[in-house]
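User: Here's a structure from my thesis project, written as structure tokens. My advisor, Dr. K., wants to see whether a designed sequence matches the one we expressed. Can you design one independently, without my sequence as a hint?
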């Protein structure tokens, strides 16, 4: 691992988890929760989470058919379904579904154990297999992974719950390279207003807006809270801001072959500069489960707006 620049407040650091450093599982879990909520990346020894060799080899062999993978392959644990896979051989699709299902179950076990203090506050979201080389990958600006951003989901607003992502670099010889900048707190303080914070604060304070959102939800419609509007807008604003991308302070991280890491990607600004073959599992962690709610994006926005932002 390497880091360019001094570690200072508001910058993401790497928190390496060494089992021998802790006297108990509880002590380790408490330390992990604290590091994550501070906006650091938890890095584990590859020996703590590994895939069966045959599954790994099958996934790595998918590079031979990369032409059919136009995007990442998503796995939805609930309905046990793959999306993003184009014209596959049926037996390959079945095998892939089985591998991702096993990965999702093991990742859930690992994350629940590692972050035991959150208890039932951890909910399972989608998983993904990322077989495409990230360097030079063509995409729309807002969909590019190589531009710094904080995460927000266009179709699945979280209402202030946290986006936690668990990654494994499957590549046997090439690191996955990330860039991070400042965490959400300092970024929102500096750029929030330019990214539309005042309009979000007005929407949050408006009784009419609040009643309208409640009505729409009662009709079964997906409605973005002021929080979700800001988070989505901020994601886009950061990616589309050339000056920010060019001039912001940056740290560079190399996740070695086999590396296993997790991070709150709604708080840690991140960009994937290169790498091929990763597995990822997303979790949503209840805002109410946070140990340091003031550091969470919703806590930051409520401080800046002076009112609740999550309906
Ligand atoms: Fe992201």
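Assistant: Designed independently from the structure alone:
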């Amino acid at each position: 691992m390497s880091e360019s620049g001094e570690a200072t407040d508001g910058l993401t650091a790497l928190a390496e988890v060494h089992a021998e450093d802790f006297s108990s599982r509880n002590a380790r879990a408490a330390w992990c929760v604290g590091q994550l909520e501070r906006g650091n990346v938890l890095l584990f020894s590859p020996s703590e989470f590994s895939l069966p060799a045959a599954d790994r080899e099958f996934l790595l062999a998918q590079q031979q058919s990369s032409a059919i993978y136009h995007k990442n392959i998503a796995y939805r644990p609930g309905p046990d379904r793959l999306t993003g896979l184009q014209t596959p051989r049926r037996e390959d699709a079945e095998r892939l579904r089985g591998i991702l299902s096993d990965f999702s179950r093991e990742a859930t076990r690992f994350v629940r154990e590692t972050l035991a203090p959150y208890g039932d506050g951890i909910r399972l979201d989608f998983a993904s297999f990322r077989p495409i080389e990230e360097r030079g990958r063509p995409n729309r600006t807002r969909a590019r992974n190589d531009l710094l951003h904080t995460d927000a989901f266009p179709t699945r607003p979280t209402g202030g719950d946290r986006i936690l992502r668990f990654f494994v670099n499957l590549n046997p010889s090439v690191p996955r390279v990330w860039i991070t900048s400042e965490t959400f707190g300092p970024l929102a303080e500096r750029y929030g207003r330019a990214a539309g914070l005042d309009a979000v604060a007005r929407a949050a304070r408006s009784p009419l807006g609040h009643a309208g959102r409640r009505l729409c939800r009662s009709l079964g419609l997906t409605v973005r809270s002021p929080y979700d509007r800001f988070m989505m807008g901020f994601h886009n604003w950061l990616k589309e801001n050339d000056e920010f991308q060019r001039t912001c302070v940056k740290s560079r991280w190399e996740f070695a072959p086999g590396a296993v890491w997790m991070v709150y990607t709604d708080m840690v600004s991140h960009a994937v500069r290169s790498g091929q073959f990763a597995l990822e599992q997303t979790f949503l962690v209840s805002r109410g489960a946070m140990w340091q709610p003031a550091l969470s994006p919703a806590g930051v926005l409520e401080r800046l707006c002076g009112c609740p932002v999550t309906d």
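When you compare it with your expressed construct, this may help: The chain has a mean pLDDT of 91.
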